[in-house]
């Protein structure tokens, strides 16, 4: 007996778009939904092709918590294209490094871009003859990120309390890493309280801007200082995450991301990374506040590493 399957035109259109633009995890999740296959059924069909992959790994891949990187994982991705009846290499190509042919980029910054930005920051600081450790530890840091109607990061503002751990500290170095497509020459550094803007260094290749904030006073070891600053951007492609790196342990950190009423994400989550090259861990779903169109996280005592909020637009 023959069985004709009529697939939803809308679902197929969404799948075609996801396969064209990525990122990988969204394309995989859309394909699974379009085919109506549970993960354990996918695992079984992969096993029939001699490919063994755990349901947990498949779940992580579709959530974006991990990316297939090892040779056996990439072989599983090729087999997934067969199981899900997708065009050859339609998923595999979304895992390839380098610029995308359609002008769009993966949803989150790549590990390579984060590592590259780290090296750029070190070179910019060396050019300014300033050490990476500026002699300050964070006591408390409250940060607000604004996402505009075009899904772009319009800018961010910070209220920062620091404590000097050596005598004579009189400045803070604020670092901005714009989204892909960021034009550093158009990024504005603002001093909003108890400081003024000094030197500014920019790197077009990575979208990194380093702003020197001068206190006009020299702190003694153990002395605290409160100041405010911000960056106006709005030049990058649609934003899908905001991360902050911590080189040293510190006090409380609060991050709020506020979205334009015409551009609300469908899903938000908190995550951490031990380093720029490490996978996301500690993921936690965040509920978007309706009246305020925002999500936030609170970290009572930050540790060295990366902390952030990511979101999906569709």
Q: How would you describe this structure to a colleague?
A:
By secondary structure, the protein is an alpha+beta fold. It has two domains: 87 residues, 434 Repressor (Amino-terminal Domain), CATH 1.10.260; 202 residues, Sandwich (Immunoglobulin-like). The protein has six helices and 13 strands. Strands 4-7-2-1-9-12 form a six-stranded mixed beta sheet, with no helix packed on it. A four-stranded antiparallel beta sheet has the order 8-13-10-11, with no helix packed on it. Strands 3-6-5 form a three-stranded antiparallel beta sheet, with helices on one face. Helix 1 runs antiparallel to helix 2. The longest helix is centred in the middle third of the chain and has 17 residues. It is elongated. The N terminus is likely disordered.
SSE layout and pairings?
Blueprint: H1 9-21, H2 24-35, H3 39-48, H4 55-63, H5 71-83, H6 111-127, E1 136-147, E2 153-164, E3 169-177, E4 188-193, E5 196-203, E6 208-219, E7 224-232, E8 241-246, E9 252-259, E10 267-273, E11 281-286, E12 294-299, E13 305-312
Parallel strand pairs: 1-9
Antiparallel strand pairs: 1-2, 2-7, 3-6, 4-7, 5-6, 8-13, 9-12, 10-11, 10-13
Helix pairs in contact: 1-2
């Amino acid at each position: 007996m023959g069985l004709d399957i009529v697939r939803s035109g809308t679902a197929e259109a969404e799948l075609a778009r996801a396969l064209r633009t990525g990122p990988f995890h969204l394309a995989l999740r859309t394909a699974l939904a379009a085919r109506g296959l549970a993960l354990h059924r996918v695992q079984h069909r992969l096993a029939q092709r001699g490919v063994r992959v755990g349901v947990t790994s498949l779940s992580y891949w579709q959530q974006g918590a991990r990316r297939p990187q090892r040779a056996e994982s990439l072989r599983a991705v090729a087999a997934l294209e067969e199981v899900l009846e997708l065009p050859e290499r339609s998923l595999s190509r979304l895992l390839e490094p380098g610029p995308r042919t359609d002008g769009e980029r993966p949803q989150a910054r790549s590990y390579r871009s984060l590592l590259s930005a780290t090296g750029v920051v070190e070179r910019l600081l060396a050019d300014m003859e300033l050490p990476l450790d500026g002699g300050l530890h964070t006591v408390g840091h409250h940060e607000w990120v604004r996402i505009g109607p075009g899904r772009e990061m319009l800018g961010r503002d910070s209220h920062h309390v620091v404590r000097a751990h050596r005598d004579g500290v009189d400045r803070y170095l604020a670092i901005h890493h714009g989204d892909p497509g960021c034009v550093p020459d158009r990024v504005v550094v603002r001093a909003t309280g108890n400081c003024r803007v000094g030197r500014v260094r920019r790197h077009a290749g990575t979208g990194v801007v380093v702003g020197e904030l001068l206190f006009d006073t020299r702190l003694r070891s153990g002395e605290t200082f409160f100041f405010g600053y911000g960056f106006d951007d709005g030049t990058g492609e649609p934003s899908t995450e905001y991360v902050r790196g911590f080189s040293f342990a510190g006090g409380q950190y609060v991050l709020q991301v506020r979205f334009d009423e015409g551009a609300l994400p469908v899903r938000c989550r908190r995550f951490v990374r031990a380093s720029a090259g490490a996978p996301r861990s500690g993921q936690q779903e965040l509920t978007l506040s309706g009246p305020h169109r925002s999500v936030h996280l609170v970290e009572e005592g930050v540790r060295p590493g990366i902390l952030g909020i990511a979101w999906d637009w569709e």
